[in-house]
């Protein structure tokens, strides 16, 4: 089972270059419990980069760069399928 509704959609974030950025999301309820990943401008985010951490539904960028700006979506996935959250915009000043 994978429901349609996200318990929490990420919201827009505005930060200055060099500041940390945090986006939070809670995926729909599902069985098995969905795993969470993030996409930026439609491309899966690589959390192998040191600055980027995905823990639970949180996306944390420790040292924001100009090129981190863009449209982010949270993706909840399990064996039934995947659901994408509403789009949240990260603005880097």
Automatic annotation (TrEMBL):
Domain of life according to the entry: Eukaryota
Keywords, comma-separated and alphabetical: Disulfide bond, Immunoglobulin domain, Repeat, Signal
Region annotation (Disordered) ranges: 23-44
Residue ranges of domain Ig-like in the record: 4-91
SUPFAM superfamilies: Immunoglobulin
Coiled coil spans: none
PANTHER family linked: CTX-RELATED TYPE I TRANSMEMBRANE PROTEIN, ROUNDABOUT HOMOLOG 1
Protein name: ROBO1 protein
Organism of this sequence: Hemiprocne comata
